[in-house]
Every structure is written in C-alpha cells, then in structure tokens.
Specification:
Elements: H1 3-31, H2 40-55, H3 61-71, H4 80-99, H5 107-128, H6 133-157, H7 172-189, H8 196-205, H9 213-234, H10 243-261, H11 267-292
Helix pairs in contact: 1-4, 2-3, 2-10, 3-11, 4-9, 4-10, 5-7, 5-9, 6-8, 6-11, 8-9
C-alpha cells in the first residue's frame, strides 16, 4: 500500500476519533449531570499553556501536574493520571493530525510501535485501576523525576546532532526492542508519564535523527490516550472541574504552536520545566509518605 495513502487513512481515523470522543464525553456528562464548565477560566489557561508546550516538544503531563497542584483544580491526586489522559486527548489528536505528515517516517515503525502502545495502555489501565492515592502519588512523583532526568540528558548532550538524516525507521532486532519499549511507554502513560522525552532519547541513542521520533510519539500519545480515556471515565477516575476549559484551551494552544512557535528556541523553557517538574515530583513523594504515615 502506498505510504501517502496510509498517512491519509491515519488522518481520517484521527478525525473520526475526535468526533467519537467528543460525542462520548458530551453524552457521559449529560447522563450523569456533570458540569464540566466549572472553573472554565482556570482550565482554559492550563490547557492553553500545557498543550502549546506539548506541541513544541516539551510535553504536557509534567506541566499539567504542576498546575493542578498550584491551582488545586484536582482535589484527589489519585484522579490526576486519568484526568490528564482524558483532558489532553482531543488536543493531542489535533496535534497528531497536524504533524503526522511533517516528518518522513517508515510506516512499519510508525504503525507497529503505535499498536504496541495500545496494548501497553490496556495493561497499564488494568494494573493501576485499584491503586491507593498514596501509591499513585509515589509512582507519579518518581516518574516525574525520571522524566526530568531524560530532559536534562537531552539538554546536556544535544542528542541527534550529526546523525544521519536518511534513516527513517527501525529494522530487525531494533524494531523488536522499539515495540517492547513502546509497550512500556503505553503502560507508563496511564499513570502520568509522558512519552515524548523517552521516545526522543530512545531514537537518539540508536543513532537515528530524533526528528523521526516526532510522528511516532505523537501518534503513540493519541492512540494510548484514546485507549485509556474511556476506561478512566467509566471507572470515575476523571476530575471534571475545568475540563471544558482545558480541552478548548488545549486545542487553541496546539494551533498557536503550529502556526507561530515551532521555530522559536525552547532551551530556556525546557530548563524551567526541568526544575518545576523535579519540585513537583519531590512534593508528591513527600505527600505520599505523609499519607502512609
């Protein structure tokens, strides 16, 4: 099958998914009489900032967690992972739709790693479903610090410079390793760890230009969040306060990033995110210990 046809098919599926998810959320909130427009303004600016940063490569999970703690938008920490997956789903689908054709990537690599993420998300959602609040705090805090370490590595070593530009995917044993890696990323995303930094590091360490990771990680995020969001909603693990504001602000943030911010240097922003993420991770670990005590 022609690669362009495959990419067009993926874009059509993304549009259909956006329509389906939007309809499901509206139907669910009406059935249960949920007001997702409460604290709309707070949700709007959080979605605008986090998804704008997400679209230029920084990621949204760590920054969203930080803003949730700052604004107390989510009162129950055990609902943070589910809320982040649900609230960023539609902006992430829009993001994938915009960028899926931006970088040339091998279709076998793109599709196989995306499928691996789906199965990882299914496993991760089931594993973490009945975790206690203190457990979620401990795991999420630890993973936030790990994610910041990945970012520091990228900032200090500048992986990708001088790498070949003609390799567009993985083959052989490295493809198998990539599939296993993405399965783990899919599982970890269900407890709040974004996949952007790990994906960029993974491709860079294999000697492949990290720009190849962009369409892979965006499609991965889209399929994982789609797979995990509905189970999170059904399990009542989503906080609806500010939800509508975050979704609308997030979509606008993605559009702004695509139109204006893609060529702006973001090194300073990444360093700021590193320090904020480490602080938030430590805070959540302390809160976990206090809850257990």
């Amino acid at each position: 099958m022609d690669n362009n046809l495959i990419l067009r098919t993926i874009q059509v599926l993304l549009v259909v998914t956006i329509i389906f998810v939007t309809g499901y959320i509206i139907q669910h909130t009406r059935r249960h009489k949920i007001n997702m427009f409460e604290r709309f303004g707070t949700g709007f600016w959080i979605g605008l900032v986090t998804d704008c940063l997400d679209a230029i490569g920084i990621g949204s999970f760590a920054t969203t967690t930080t803003f949730f703690k700052m604004t107390k938008l989510v009162s129950d920490d055990s609902k943070i992972p589910g809320t982040m997956n649900a609230v960023h789903l539609i902006p992430t689908l829009v993001q994938a739709l915009c960028f899926i054709l931006a970088v040339k990537v091998d279709m076998t690599t793109l599709l196989s790693m995306a499928v691996a993420s789906i199965f990882g998300a299914i496993a991760g959602t089931r594993i973490t479903r009945n975790w206690k609040t203190s457990t979620v705090q401990l795991v999420l805090g630890t993973l936030l610090i790990i994610a910041s370490c990945f970012t520091v590595y990228r900032l200090l070593t500048n992986p990708g410079e001088g790498l070949t530009d003609n390799v567009t995917g993985l083959t052989g044993i490295w493809l198998i390793i990539g599939i296993i890696f993405n399965f783990l990323c899919g599982a970890l995303m269900t407890i709040g760890l974004g996949n952007y930094a790990p994906e960029l590091i993974f491709f860079s360490m294999l000697g492949i230009n990290p720009t190849v990771a962009m369409p892979v990680m965006m499609l991965n995020a889209a399929v994982v969040m789609t797979t995990s969001t509905i189970p999170f909603i059904k399990a009542d693990r989503v906080n609806w306060t500010g939800f509508a504001g975050m979704v609308i602000g997030g979509v606008i943030g993605v559009i702004i990033a695509v139109l204006f911010l893609t060529n702006i240097p973001i090194t300073v922003l990444k360093w700021l995110v590193v320090f904020v993420v480490i602080y938030t991770g430590i805070s959540m670990i302390k809160a976990s210990r206090q809850a257990k005590a």
